[in-house]
User: What shape does this take?
Amino acid sequence: MAKELQGLRDKIDAVDKQMLDLLELRLKLVEEVGEVKSEHGLPIYAPGREAAMLQSRRDEAEKRAIPPQLIEDILRRVMRESYASEKDSGFKCLNPNVGDVVIIGGHGQLGSLFKKMFDLSGYQVKVLGSKNWHEADALFSNAGLVVVTVPINKTASVIAKLDNLPEQCILCDFTSIKAKPLQAMLDVHSGPVVGLHPMFGPDVPSLAKQVIVHCEGRGAEQYQWLLEQFAIWGASLCPMDAEQHDDGMTLIQALRHFTSFAYGLHLSKENPDIDTLLKLSSPIYRLEIAMVGRLFAQDPDLYGDIILSSDKNIEMIKRFQQRLGEAVSLLEHHDKSAFVTQFNSVSEWFGDYSKQFMHESQTLLKQANDSIQRDH
Assistant: This one.
């Protein structure tokens, strides 16, 4: 039996090596695709092409009695690597005559990412920070685009200093709140202004499929090339009113970060053995505790600034506290009937999204479970 098993394993190893050869070839072809896209100014992410290709491969897999989801999972992972590879080919510069791109806070993580993207596109990029602010006037003299990407608590004071930019220079910011910074930029600069919020962290391998929200300020026709440049980098653009954006971020960022903070604080006070929790975890709980734990691997000042950036955030968190108390009272009264009624009410509010989220979460949980390495 052992000899027979080893023979089959040897054949599997040989197939795996063939797969590596094919992956190597595919990535080389992707590099060539990236060069063509760069030359012609095509975006690295083409949603229609990706969807059609995946459907075609699923159909082919089904004909061969191969689970369609298997080939889709493989190809999506390969495409993620491919987008990162295409990025290294560089990008077409849509506005070579714009002048200098000055990134205020360009030594920070997000600023560094965008500096690299502008560099890859052939723009003349300069970085301005607290240590070389004495050079600000010289750096601004030929600026065609100024990007403010500094901590939230410093954004207003930095924008207030930008009253000597060239008239046609585009002024934008990357702050995770939009209404106040956008108004501050409009007040200080008479030229084109746009509020931007990259909805991702600095550790993304590429901008493919990443969302950048843009809030109109002034002179949209003058900064249109910038949005198109983001699209070439692979980003998905989302126009939105600044106030609408901030209302959404109160839930997406402030409340979510606070509840993660509160749950982590609760765990630390209960002081369970984390290894035991992980051994007992279903994939969904492991993913949940991982999302809480990752918060505490990051900068507390950043998250404190995000949560405390608006009185709206605090009011929202207080309303959540009140509703949490109401939910706890159902348990205190052992009122299962009321619990079920409330559950059904929330389910009705989610509507068809419940099934959509069930499908999406099942895919994520399978991937999360695949990445776990058990001792036995």
